[in-house]
Amino acid sequence: MSTPTKVKRATKDRRPKKKPCSLCIEKAVDVVYRDVSRLRKYVSERGKIVPRRISGACSKHQRMVTVAVKRARVIAFLPFVAE
Ligand SMILES: [Zn+2]
């Protein structure tokens, strides 16, 4: 009994070009929790913080964003969860 040979395509090259961190382009020194319009870009519709692989932010700025979003949530500038 022979099984049909499955040909697996090598899809290793599927790596989209890494876009630079938008906050680095803006030369943002800090991300403040009051800057809701900016933070909105790093929060999904459900209110979750967008991961770095999607937001494209560098580690430095992603960390700032994370802290700022968490602070903004506490003061109810941003929702913890949105339905
Ligand atoms: Zn950056």
UniProtKB/TrEMBL annotation:
GO terms for biological process: translation. Keywords: Ribonucleoprotein, Ribosomal protein. The keyword Ribosomal protein applies. GO terms for molecular function: small ribosomal subunit rRNA binding; structural constituent of ribosome. Gene3D superfamilies: Ribosomal protein S18. One of its GO terms (cellular component) is cytosolic small ribosomal subunit. InterPro entries: Ribosomal_bS18, Ribosomal_bS18_sf. The keyword Ribosomal protein applies. Pfam families: Ribosomal_S18. HAMAP family: Ribosomal_bS18. Belongs to the bacterial ribosomal protein bS18 family. This is Ribosomal protein S18.
